[in-house]
Amino acid sequence: MLETLERETGGPVRASLVWMHGLGADAEDFAELPELLGLGPGVRCVLPRAPVRPVTLNGGVPMRAWFDILGLGPGFPEDEAGIRASAREIEALLERERARGSTRLAVGGFSQGGALALHVGVRAAQPLAGVVGLSTWLPLGERAAAEITAEGRASPVWMGHGTADEIVRLEWAERSRDRLLALGCDVTWRTYPIGHTVAAEELSELGTWLAGRFRGTRSPGC
Fold first, then answer.
1. Which residues are catalytic?
2. Is the Cβ–Cβ distance between 96 and 109 less than 8 Å?
3. Residues 6+ apart with CB under 8 A from 98
4. Which 8-state DSSP code applies to residue 78?
5. How far apart are CA 46 and CA 43, in angstroms?
6. Is 57:71 a contact under the CB 8 Å cutoff?
7. Helix or strand or coil: residue 19?
């Protein structure tokens, strides 16, 4: 099982958020996530660390990565084996959280981590309280129609993206959003005047949405 960093918000844990970092980053980058999201008591944030592997896009330099990236944008081949292997690791963490007593689970991430979260979410074996993708895209999108589960379709999605993102272009994320909508997913979509990063306003809005999902309700305006 993946090495993880865990943060709890206090009190008996009733909900868990499994959150994946981006390419070349580390779980420590999101160590303050519970505070940044403003999550109330009873939540455990599980922050796994991706394995170190060579990344073709970056000249084969080894770094923490959920899967290899051969190129950015539509038209480049995808590392299907790597995506599916990492997805199994995240699914194992979700199962562990269920076994530990969490009754509401969410999965999310930033950039490459968000791509993995969307992949796992649409193929969920049990409904998730939320699926979050920040500054990201849906990998293996052409396979999603054949592989989406009823449970995945029932898991609400929140996507946030920067209008000035120079790494994962806005139109790529919009294409993924539209694909999810076409599959029947409930998608909340937000954009912010930022690049390939996370904004305080974005985290605040996401935190409100997640808190509602963990309570089993919709947040106002979402």
1. 111, 165, 196
2. no
3. 105, 126
4. B
5. 10
6. yes
7. strand
pLDDT per residue over 145-167, tens digit each?
999 999 999 999 999 999 999 99
Q: What tokens appear for 178 in the block? A: 């539209």
- Is residue 156 classed as helix, strand or coil in its secondary structure? coil
Instruction: Give the model confidence (pLDDT) of 28-50 as tens digits.
Output: 999 999 999 999 999 999 999 99
Helix runs in the chain, H state only: 33-37, 80-99, 112-122, 141-147, 150-153, 170-182, 200-215
Domain-wise residue ranges, the chain = 4-215
Global pTM exceeds 0.85:
yes
Answer yes or no: CATH 3.40.50.1820 is held by domain 4-215.
yes
Q: Which residues pair with 130 in a beta bridge?
A: 106
Return the closest-CA partner of residue 209 out of 133, 152, 126: 133
Q: Check residue 100 and give left, alpha or beta (phi > 0: left; psi -120 to 50: alpha).
A: alpha
Cβ burial of 52 (10 Å; 0-12, 13-18, 19+) is exposed
Q: For residue 219, what pLDDT band results from cuts at 50, 70 and 90?
A: very low
